[in-house]
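hey so u asked for the seq, here:
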Amino acid sequence: MPIEKIATDQAPAAIGPYSQGIRAGDYVFFSGQIPLDPHTGELVAGGIREQTERVMANMKAALEAAGLSFAQVVKSTIYLTDLGQFALVNEIYGRFFGEVPPARATVQVAALPRGAAVEIEWIAYCGR
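ran it, structure tokens below
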């Protein structure tokens, strides 16, 4: 099975030894996105609302680079530094999915890279 790297300059470049996404067969596995501005590489200003909006924009760009959309996301994991922000993150996240949202886990973590408050990773089905 050939492995294909997914990359776009419309989402933040990897800040370590990993790829933005990897297509393996009928699936694309995407690395976690934190709220970095893809043009400056800096954490976006604002609170959890602005950070979640940026993460979702980064997700959209990565999906589009793979020729996919949110409708093809089958699994995601949301990492939060404060589970008390879950309702707001959930509201923003939910706007991007239709009647069949992906399976999902949400967990609270002690810290995220660059001091981010939210990170999301996901898997999409491309059904070639």
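The two ends are 13 Å apart (CA to CA). Residues 3-125 form a domain with the 60s Ribosomal Protein L30; Chain: A; fold (CATH 3.30.1330.40).
lmk if thats what u needed
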